[in-house]
Request: fold
Amino acid sequence: ISNKGVLIMDETKEASNQMPEMNSQNDNFELVETDRQQVDTFKNQIVSLDNQSVMNYGREQQQQLSQYSDRMLQEVQKEDVKDISKTLDKLMKQLDESDPDKLLPENQNFLTKMMRRTKEAVEKQFRHLTSVSAKIDSVSRELDSNQKILMQDIQSLDALYQHNQAYFKDVSALVEAGELRLKELRENELQQLKNKASQTGAQEDIQAVADMEDFIERLDKRVYDLQLSRDVALQSAPQIRMIQNINQSLAEKIQTSVMTSIPVWKNQMAIALALTNQRQVSRSQQLVNDTTNEMINKNSKMLK
Reply:
């Protein structure tokens, strides 16, 4: 912990380097010099021997941390994100199982060829693929809607990140102000009371020293609590980015599925069906040619 109250964590820095840059120009968790006035304001809130001022010190900011934690928990527990992942897996499985390439004769085994020689079998396979295509279109529309929700969530999380950053700076100022006030109390007011008590030996002066020491101890504990809250805010930053990264990854997968995988599958199906129809036409044309040749041969034999 530096003099400005900035906690440096190697794990946090490493995790931050792996996250996408949402708003890199604002991702600066430091207590800058422009916050000196804020530190002085916070320090003046601590009144000597006023235990209520210690209890209320930073209370409003810590309540904000509780609200941020609740929002983060809600984002992590979202069921729709899990459902989107399942929908994507199901879609990829459908695309893989409904392979239009299976229509081509060279990609069929002997039994399948025997069962699908007729035109009716080919048409049945065509109807199956058409039905699958309709289902895929329905899933595509659903995924497109989910992608919009994910993008809204990413924006909300970005706003949450900014709030967390502001909270971190406020609590850092509170910690520094509390430490400065503790130093003043120990070096000035407490020392003055001790000097007076040693000179007079009066019971009230000795009690005044004990009261000041108790007050300093309470303030020290309060500052420590704020330090813990600041550390939680610092750890929350990469956590928020991690959730954003997950949502961003899902949104990109949806875009890849809707804009790339599905059109490629449809094109493959169209090509396979076109080749199948072409083979049917070629087979029919060959049959006509064979029949014509056979008739010519018969005519030649009859003439001979």
Notes: The CA atoms of residues 119 and 280 lie 8 Å apart. The chain has a mean pLDDT of 75. The helical segments are 10-17, 36-44, 51-56, 59-76, 79-97, 110-115, 119-200, 203-303. The two ends are 112 Å apart (CA to CA).
